[in-house]
Specification:
The protein is an all-beta fold. The protein has no helices and six strands.
C-alpha cells in the first residue's frame, strides 16, 4: 500500500467487512448492508500544520483499527480495492 501518501492530517483507511447476517440469523444482501464505520489504517499523512508552523504528530499509525464518522471521507479505489481518505478529525476512536 505504499503507492499512496496522504497529505497533512489525512489517513487512508481500508474498511473492514460488514456483517452479512443479522443477530437473528437473517442473511443480508450486499445492497441492504450498511457500509462499515470500522477500518484499518493503511497510510498516514505527515500531520497537520499548526499556527506556529510546526507539524502536529498524528494520534494514529499504520495498522491501527479505528471507528470513523459515518459520512466522513472520500471513497477511492486503489489496486482494485475500496479505500477511504479521511481527515484525522473524522476518526472517532481507536479499537484496542
Amino acid at each position: 500500500m505504499s503507492k499512496i501518501k496522504p497529505l497533512e492530517d489525512r489517513l487512508v483507511v481500508k474498511r473492514l467487512d460488514s456483517q452479512e447476517k443479522t443477530a437473528g440469523g437473517i442473511i443480508l444482501p450486499d445492497s441492504a448492508q450498511e457500509k462499515p464505520q470500522k477500518g484499518k489504517i493503511v497510510a498516514v499523512g505527515s500531520g497537520k500544520v499548526l499556527d506556529n508552523g510546526k507539524r502536529a504528530k498524528s494520534d494514529v499509525s499504520v495498522g491501527d483499527v479505528v471507528i470513523f464518522s459515518k459520512y466522513g471521507g472520500t471513497e477511492v479505489t486503489l489496486d482494485g480495492e475500496e479505500h477511504l481518505i479521511l481527515n484525522e478529525s473524522d476518526v472517532l476512536a481507536l479499537v484496542k
